[in-house]
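Q: For a teaching session next week I want to show students how multiple molecules come together into a single three-dimensional assembly. I've collected the sequence lines for a complex. Could you give me the predicted structure tokens for the whole thing so I can convert them for display?
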Amino acid sequence: MISYELILSTAVIIVVLLSGTFNLTAIIENQIAIWYIVPLLPVFILFFISILAETSRTPFDLQEAESELVAGFFTEHSAIIFVFFFLAEYCSIVLMSSLSAILFTGGWLMPELFVNDTIINLQAIILGLKTCFFIFLFVHSRATLPRIRYDQLIIVMWTQLLPIAIALTILVPSVLVAFNIAPL
Amino acid sequence: MTILFNFLEVLVVLVPMLLVVAFVTIVERKMLAAAQRRVGPNIVGVYGVLQPFADALKLVVKEVIVPANSNKVLFYLAPIATLIFSLLGWGVIPFGEGLVIFDFSLGLLYTLALSSLGIYGVLFAGWSGNSKYAFLGSKWPNEDSNDLLQQTISGKFTYKLLGTLIVSCIRCAIKVKILLTVNNPQVTKAFNSWVGTSEAIRLLSKNIQNLNSLLFSSLRTLSLMHTWPLMIEKYPTSILNLNTKLGFKQYGISTLTNNKNQDPPCQLAPVSSEIRALRTRRGEWNQWLAGLIDGDGSFYLTKKGYASLEITMDLRDEHALQIIKNVYGGSIKLVSNANALRYCLRHKSGFLSLVNDVNGNIRNSYRLVQLNKICVKYNIPLIYPSKLSFDNAWLAGFFDADGSITINTTNGQLAIHISQNTAELLEPLTSLYGGSVYINRSGPSFKWYITKREDILNIIKYFKKYPSRSEKKQRLHLIPKCYELQNLGAHKAAEGSYLNKSWQLFIAKWLKYEN
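A: Of course. Below is the structure for the complete assembly, covering every listed component.
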């Protein structure tokens, strides 16, 4: 659990270093010039892998490894309390998708063409569409990727992704300082 | 009214979210079906979109079964906690400009924190169900935070951290003590025992593998030993006096017993100039011998209660061993399969006089532990070493055991170094004699290295006062010559010149004393 939360938080820290704020609204407004997915594509990949693990989705769904355990940690839960688990799981998927939409693809930002002053607020719809795209990625990864073994998860996270993440935490602010564009 | 409004605000976000979740499930099922060339749910509603509602309805109507042996509170709490934690995250998500429940300035941190809290639901659920499968399910992905991580990372890491922390604590304590100059004996005692204990813990954690069997005896020794430097700051004169007094007394006893013994004692041995010098400078001899034993010797106590001392040295250092043999008796043997000699001291009187001589000068903690065992057996009070000073022959002995002098053939740099497995003995040397301690690249050992010319000349002065007794002294004698030649630039002189020739001659001489 710590293994992928480390990567998740490192990726988030890089976004914070680039935008200079923890406020989600401010992060979105900072992306008016360019979506963060463009300069931070490797960070986005790390982020996406770690949110797959965070929401315990394939290929990291070891908590509910159906073929090995009966149903995972909620084996004994049934009926309405099982619904709660079900809702929580998908709710966190949607939450994480919208978070990645906000952090990397500019949240409710849209091309000038669609900006209007009418009663119809397109912003929420735009955010929803972006979120939908990430949910699509989630489902697609479940459809295509096999589950990895526990030790593989640990090795990949600790020895491959974490060093990359840490290297990027050093690289991104260095570039910002070098070009004198670091946020205050 | 505002409360109602806030409540509505939250509801406006949460109800669509739960609906979204329902549709996400159908999207997922449809997509998986498409990926596997199936149709997927397509009966309920148009194109099967109402399938999740039908499923949810079925689940709600079902009977709730709670395992009899489960922890009921956690069993119900787990799903609720999980759902609440994942729904709370929506509080800071902006859906549009100003369309946010709470525009939190640390929103991102809040989201991260909530996502890590989600694991509690999983843990509660896995544990409370009292089912192996559920427990394994909750344990697997979290294993690295529970067992694995503790074993691999934090285990070693906290070990090291603890060590440095305690060391810094001690340094602090010493400083505070110096600042306060506490005169209250109770305070001093408390300080000493505290520092001593913590230092003992540090040393134990450092040598834990070797000391496992010796735990009880060594704990006492080490804790007392490391109280010593503090006490010496407090009562330096009194203790030094005590030390010398004891030394003289013991010397008297040892010569007396030697006379009675049939082994050739020092009096009967041919009185060489070396031994005469020894008698006049008994303290220096003791210090040198203790240094040598710290480096190359070891005390043994067999199960039969048979105590002995062994010192293993190079074949060329026979002279040094002969001197020791002349003083205490014992025997020298050739070590098979190695170019080494082993000095062995077994008979009781000689051994006891040696123990009395080196007692109080032994600084190596391993050796101290060995010595303590022997002291306990023969009922001798173990004396703990005082703080090392510049005018102490201990270094000469230690250098004879583990030191060496080398010249780098490429740049002609001269270096004196001493290798040890622990830095504990080497660190005090840096402040007294200069140089610095390095970690050896080839093995897990430390090296005290002096390369600076002033420091080396200083050391040579030291060795003039406290001579080295091994073959290493030959190279020590050559050092001034080396510097003289280097000042002339001989080591960089062109091939064929006389300077070069003299340098080559020097190197040949140097290599003759290879060790």
